[in-house]
């Protein structure tokens, strides 16, 4: 029958190496119980593979993340079965842990934002401890960040900008599910173009690490959908006729420098300078200069 072993995986840092520990309950039994622990991984390609099997009297089992059999980016499981030494053929029902993702996580995993100038916080977490392979190296992982269009057929740069080109994940005391973290803000570019909703990617790549575990690892991209918003327009033309954002029309024939428009929510304004361009029969002003901030 089921023994409610309830296996759970958690990472540990041991002498500069990252190990995963599977712990499970030890049921009360008159006879000493043996445990068969099966480790398996779900690779990024979606393939489930068995990587280690052991029989132990302990209520825990370890496996090392060596970058070869067990890599960053894998989702790891441990399956535990109990039996007695005298009757090894009579085994309890196998119980599997929840999948433990080992690597870099972005929260949220995807974003849906609009061209409204708002900043959106993207949190970067490491689910495994940051090891210090050498004394000269600081205990951190540096991630180089970049953006690109998902559709390579669309011209122009990505529709998003980041507040930083790289982030450092520093070794820190672990929380419930994180061993290092940083934040970066994502903003949609207001491009004044009606180009529809577009998808951009945020890519992260570890740099400056010599150990195999991090050198061959590329975290999963973050998908950002940018919602196109209609763009307002205002005009000042000929002598000058003015049309406001909401369609109001009026004329300004005066000479001088004027504040044409100003945002109440951000640092943005446009000034126009008007000079005399009329004849001796009619006084008329024309736009001769513009300054924008």
Automatic annotation (TrEMBL):
PROSITE patterns named among the record's database cross-references: VWFD (PS51233)
Domain of life: Eukaryota
Entry keyword set: Disulfide bond, Signal
CC annotations in GO: cell surface; extracellular region
Keyword Cell division: no
A Pfam family reported for this protein in Swiss-Prot or TrEMBL: Ig_VWDE
Coiled coil: none
Protein name: VWDE protein
Organism: Pitta sordida
Organism placement in taxonomy: Eukaryota, Metazoa, Chordata, Craniata, Vertebrata
Protein's gene: Vwde_5
């Amino acid at each position: 029958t089921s023994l409610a072993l309830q296996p759970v995986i958690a990472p540990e840092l041991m002498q500069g190496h990252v190990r995963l520990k599977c712990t499970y309950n030890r049921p009360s039994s008159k006879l000493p119980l043996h445990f068969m622990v099966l480790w398996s991984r779900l690779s990024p390609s979606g393939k489930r593979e068995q990587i280690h099997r052991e029989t132990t009297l302990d209520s825990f089992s370890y496996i090392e993340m060596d970058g070869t059999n067990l890599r960053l980016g894998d989702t790891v499981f441990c399956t535990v079965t109990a039996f007695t030494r005298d009757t090894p053929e009579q085994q309890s029902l196998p119980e599997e842990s929840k999948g433990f993702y080992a690597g870099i996580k972005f929260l949220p995993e995807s974003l849906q934002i609009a061209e409204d100038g708002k900043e959106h916080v993207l949190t970067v977490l490491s689910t495994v401890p940051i090891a210090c392979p050498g004394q000269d190296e600081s205990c951190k992982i540096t991630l180089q960040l970049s953006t690109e269009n998902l559709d390579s057929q669309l011209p122009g740069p990505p529709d998003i900008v980041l507040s930083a080109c790289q982030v450092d994940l520093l070794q820190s005391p672990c929380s419930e599910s994180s061993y290092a973290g940083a934040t970066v803000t994502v903003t949609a570019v207001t491009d004044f173009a009606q180009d529809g909703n577009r998808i951009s990617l945020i890519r992260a790549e570890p740099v400056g690490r010599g150990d195999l575990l991090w050198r061959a690892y590329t975290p999963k991209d973050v998908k950002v959908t940018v919602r196109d918003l209609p763009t307002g327009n205002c005009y000042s033309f000929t002598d000058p006729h003015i049309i406001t954002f909401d369609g109001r029309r009026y004329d300004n024939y005066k000479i001088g420098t004027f504040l044409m428009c100003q945002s109440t929510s951000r640092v943005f304004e446009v000034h126009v300078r008007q000079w005399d361009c009329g004849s001796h029969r009619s006084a008329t002003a024309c736009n001769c200069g513009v300054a924008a901030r």
